[in-house]
Amino acid sequence: MVNTLPRSPLAPASFPDLPVIEGVRFASVAAGVRYTGRTDVMLAVLAPGTTVAGVFTRSATRAAPVLDCQDKIGQAADEGAAILVNSGNANAFTGRHGAKSVAEICKAVADATGLPTTRVFSASTGVIGEPLPHERITDRIAELNATLDAGGIKAAAEAIMTTDTFAKGAGRQVVIDGQTVSIAGIAKGSGMIAPDMATMLVYIFTDAVVDQPRLQTLLADLTDRTFNCITVDSDTSTSDSLMLCATGASQVDVTQNAAFAAALHDVMLDLAHQVVRDGEGASKFVEIRVTGAANTDDAKVHGLSIANSPLVKTAIAGEDPNWGRIVMAIGKSGASADRDRLNIRFGDILVAENGWVSPDYREEAAAEYMKRQDLVISVDLGLGDGQATVWTCDLTHGYIDINADYRS
Amino acid sequence: MVNTLPRSPLAPASFPDLPVIEGVRFASVAAGVRYTGRTDVMLAVLAPGTTVAGVFTRSATRAAPVLDCQDKIGQAADEGAAILVNSGNANAFTGRHGAKSVAEICKAVADATGLPTTRVFSASTGVIGEPLPHERITDRIAELNATLDAGGIKAAAEAIMTTDTFAKGAGRQVVIDGQTVSIAGIAKGSGMIAPDMATMLVYIFTDAVVDQPRLQTLLADLTDRTFNCITVDSDTSTSDSLMLCATGASQVDVTQNAAFAAALHDVMLDLAHQVVRDGEGASKFVEIRVTGAANTDDAKVHGLSIANSPLVKTAIAGEDPNWGRIVMAIGKSGASADRDRLNIRFGDILVAENGWVSPDYREEAAAEYMKRQDLVISVDLGLGDGQATVWTCDLTHGYIDINADYRS
Prior knowledge:
GO biological process, one term (chains A, B): ornithine biosynthetic process
Pathway (chains A, B): Amino-acid biosynthesis; L-arginine biosynthesis; L-ornithine and N-acetyl-L-glutamate from L-glutamate and N(2)-acetyl-L-ornithine (cyclic): step 1/1; Amino-acid biosynthesis; L-arginine biosynthesis; N(2)-acetyl-L-ornithine from L-glutamate: step 1/4
Function (chains A, B): Catalyzes two activities which are involved in the cyclic version of arginine biosynthesis: the synthesis of N-acetylglutamate from glutamate and acetyl-CoA as the acetyl donor, and of ornithine by transacetylation between N(2)-acetylornithine and glutamate.
Radius of gyration of chain A: 22 Å
Order of helices and strands of chain A: EEEHEHEHHHEEEHEEHEHHHEEEHEEH
Main location (chains A, B): cytoplasm
Strand content of chain A: 25-35%
Oligomer: homodimer
Helix content of chain A: 25-40%
Number of strands of chain A: 16
Distance between the termini of chain A: 8 Å
Largest sheet of chain A: 7 strands, mixed
Protein name (chains A, B): Arginine biosynthesis bifunctional protein ArgJ
């Protein structure tokens, strides 16, 4: 049923050509966990010496595989690592059965790959509260392990989709000291997308050399400016996981390297934007730039208040330059604002200033602007130096169709 | 256009018979502020000796009449008071023009009624950011003042509607020391409804005797358990105002009287429920009872997280007992929760316990329950004594229709 959704109008033209990351191999299979006629399990196996960093949902009702990954992240190892992900069932709120499924899956992967279970990470995404039929997965591990392929990343991206309407990938290469370092990542996510965590399932691979603590710090810092700045529907998943694996195969140490950090940021932001562009029912991609806030936290609070407001999102869906709803969302956010210092723009069009509509504002111009597919809404609070940018989509009949009518 | 909306399926059969409150008279008129073919301005005039309490939106972008009312509330007076409300235009984010409109309206009412301007309260509801054509209102004040009628409360309730599909009223009478004390209130509200303030426009009248500071305290306490516990769409208006006026005509002092407080609570809760029952696009009325939370604040945070979750609200619209989304909403709320102590019920049906679906749970029974129009979802967190109840409605195509397609 998931496959019947039309491709998002905001989708990129095609899946990008991603650089092959030496030290990572992928396999995927149609195990029939829940969906039929499509792949739903992917395995990634990482070469010895790979460092693994991860950030996970802060939900108090985290899924079993999330808790297991959190236990394992940061354990130093030379053995390499593996990541096993299934779609169709989130193995969330499944009590003791959930933990048992994770243990069975990790043991099967460990047995097949020769890795210790402490280096096998798993994730599950899909419906919440139903027992995971883990035998359907463990029965296929040997086959997965036998078909690992360094070029299998696109198929892996497809296998982890749920209500996604397109597979999401992003890659960058950066030359450091004459050596090329590559980054390639995949993501899934379309609904139950809200910030303040690592959003959805994201796996990023690089052949750079970085030790685990520094990789973890870098990942956390960049997550705050990328995945934690997007929202589709303000709802936070119980399964959100973002992992970054550095195989070291390039032999280039990127510790403290700004060019590498910038390239990694670009990959993460690209994937985050793709998640928004596949937001359930989305017809518009919206960037909300907040400046002049009392501080950075306030800027983000205002940005997310606008981005999560159902009235703002429905106005955007209706191509209505209803800036009064932006004022409303700023007012309700709880962060500092002075009505009479607000300055609001749609694109380059100055809409409101000095606590009222701008004298030069022409609604026809704004209405014309709102017809675009990609929109920028800028708000200056006139209070200080705090700024933040967040990204969201509109709220349409498509969102109701997808979420009122069936379970993903 | 507002009048073209069909009456909510959750609406009461008819407007209730409200007790006449001695010392209050109403008038309403079709002034053409924005709408045509319907009344849009109401005036209430209160007898000398009336005490007036009020609670207002905490939005940082409050409308001009809200700021004016906040200035005036609590000023003791023997002169009586007046309340003038228009629909069609919120006079919000209208800069200096907004404050001027409020002053002009209050002066016109003061001139006609003989009251000082400090005792004239006003409110405006409707579109944000457009200048209020206040002359259309001030031109009709003399006519309003000449047609005041103690029986005009229903017409007043109709005049303040915007996207409301039915007029909202509630009344109670309570006998204290052999004397009857009456309470009658009206409300408007349908969208941009979220808690943490007095919600929308609400006017309640009683012939009880209560001094202003005690009336204010009582109102604030009861608001926290009624209007501040409802949500339609998590969006907070810039104009929310709730005023309670005690004329004293019954000569019954109700200070510290529990029966009066209970009756007032009932009127407020009745009106609050009517606002939810007229939630934009609503097809289900949902009570969410949270118990066993670490404390009262946590209980309310969890309740509102569930009530505001688009995924929970769309599942309810689809009559899907998708309790996994309840788990998700609890997990994301930020308040304390232990996944494995959660207990969730739909009506009397135990759905989840001990971190997983209940062994006795049958989805068919829950699916049958979800077809009802009025639903109760109960969550016990198993942590402490904190409890709270909140009320909301579902999220349907109707909400998108109303908010994406035109401005209210």
